[in-house]
Amino acid sequence: MKLILLFLTVTLPLAQVIPVTKCWGKSGRCRTMCKESEVFYILCNAEAKCCVNPKYVPVNTGSSNSSGSLREPPAV
């Protein structure tokens, strides 16, 4: 009986984990600070950023001009 009580005392606090909020199509997680290997593009709420691994972020394949801008040069 004491062994069961000890087991429950140790395991019950471990089971009470805060649920993780997913974002970016379930590829990202809402955190206050992103890991070094993650980037963020949108906010989850006022305090949290949607941290996503860059491999899940689509690459913009638009052509760029010599200045690196994706905008068209102004017509003269």
Automatic annotation (TrEMBL):
GO terms for cellular component: extracellular region. Keywords: Antibiotic, Antimicrobial, Defensin, Disulfide bond, Secreted, Signal. Its main location: secreted. Residues 22-51 form the Beta-defensin domain. It is found in: Secreted. It comes from the Eukaryota. One of its GO terms (biological process) is defense response to bacterium. Pfam families: Defensin_beta_2 (PF13841). Gene3D superfamilies: Antimicrobial Peptide, Beta-defensin 2, Chain A. Residues 1-15 form the signal peptide. Has antibacterial activity. Belongs to the beta-defensin family. This is Beta-defensin. The gene is DEFB121.
